[in-house]
Design brief:
This protein has 412 residues and is an alpha/beta fold. The chain folds into two domains: 221 residues, Alpha-Beta Barrel (TIM Barrel); 153 residues, Lyase, Ornithine Decarboxylase, Chain A, domain 1 (Beta Barrel). 26% of the residues lie in helices and 20% in strands. The chain is built from eleven helices and 19 strands. The strands form three sheets. A nine-stranded mixed β-sheet has the order 11-14-17-16-15-18-10-1-19. An eight-stranded parallel β-sheet has the order 8-7-6-5-4-3-2-9. Helix 7 links the parallel strand 6 and strand 7. Helix 1 crosses helix 3, helix 7 runs parallel beside helix 8 and helix 10 crosses helix 11. The protein is elongated, with a radius of gyration of 24 Å. The chain starts with 5 loop residues before the first strand and ends in an 18-residue tail after the last strand. The C terminus is likely disordered.
Amino acid sequence: MHKDSLLHVDLAAIGRNARSLVAMVGPRATCCGIVKADAYGIGARRVAETLLEAGMTRLAVFRVDEAIDLLGAGPPVPIVLLAPIRSLSPVHPLAPAVQRGDVELVLHDDRQMDDLLALARLGSTRVSVHVEIDTGMCRGGMKPEAARPLISRILRSPLLRLRGVMTHFSEAGRDAAATRKQHGLFRSVVESLGPLPASCQVHAAATAAAVRDPAYHWDCVRIGLGWCGCVPGDEALANRLERPLTPALAWRSSICHAHEVPAGTSVGYGGVWTAPQDTVIGIVPVGYADGIPPAAGATDQRCGASIRVHPPQSVASGEGRGAAAAIVGAVSMDQIAVDLGALRGRADSFVGRGVEIIETAHNGPHSLRGFAQACGLTPHQLLVGIGPRVPRVSVSRPLVEQPSEAWQAAAV
C-alpha cells in the first residue's frame, strides 16, 4: 500500500531511553511513564509495554477512555488517571479496575473527595487516590493550605487509600528559579504532613525537572517526552545526562513534483511568499491535515521551518546526508512547497527524493525540538498534531543507523 509519509518509531530506542532514565533516578525512586493522548500519538499500548519492560512501574493517562484502553495491555501495574474524575457508575467499565486499585485517581479538591467517597460506598471498596497540590501551575490541584486537612481526612477514611502526594512544575525546562520556588512550597507542604504511609509516593518532577536536579526526584518521577529521546526546554538541559538519550522518531516523506519558477512568482494560497530569484519549487504531499503546522511556511514577512532533502538514491553528490530546503508559502491541507533553489539539479532530478520533516537528531532545525520551535510549538504540541493519515511504523533497525536513501513509498 503506497504511503505519502510515515512516522518511523524506534521502540528499541524508546526502551533504551527509559532504561537510562530509570538508572538516572536510581533505586530510591521509581518511574511513571506518561502515555496520555495515545502516547503523544505514537501508540499508547506499544509504548506502555516498552516502558514497563524497561523498568518503569506505573503509567499515567488523562482520560477515562485512555485508562480503559491500557487495562490488560502488558503486565498489570497501577494506572494513574490525572483528570479530576467526579463520578463513576458501579457498572462503568472502569469501575472494577478502580475498586481493585489498578486505576488510581487524582484528587483535586474537597468536593471531588466527597464524590469519590460516594463512589467508594457504592462499590463497598477503598479507592486509591493521589492528592495534587497547586504550587504555581494554576491548572489542577488544590491550594497548599487546603492540602493538609484534606489529606488528614483521607488517612482517617476507611473508604480511601492515599497512594500519592504530587505537584506539577510550570516551567521546569527553562526557568530554574521558578522551579525552585514551586519545589520549596511543595516541600514545605509535604513536611507539614508528618509521616505518610509507606504505600504513598511523593512525586513532583516530570522529565525536565528530573534531569535538572535530583532533589526533585522524591519517591517517583513522571517521564513523558524523555522516553522519546527529547528533554523539554533548554537544549543545554539534556547535556546533564550521563547517558545521552536517543531520538526515537523520524517523520519521512518524498518530493512528488517539482517545477522551475522565475523570480517574482508567488507560491501557494494567498501569494504570501514570492520567489526572490529564479528557483525550483518542490511539492511534498503532507499538509495541515497531516499535522504540518500552518506556521511552518515562510512568508515575505517571516521565516518558517525547513526540511532535509536527501540526494538521489543511487547518484553520488557532495550533499552528504542532504541539504535543508525551506518550506515556503501557505501550508495547504495536503501538501507543502519547498524552495530547492539552493540545491543543485534540474526540477525533474528532485522528484522521488526522500525528505525528513523530523530526523533523528537531538538538536538542529530538523530535530523534533528544532522543527517544533520553528513552528512556534512545543515538541508535545507538534507530536500530538501529527494526524492519523500518517501511519506509525515500528522499525527493525535503529533509525540513527539507517542509510539516507530515498523512501518515496513504503509497504506497511
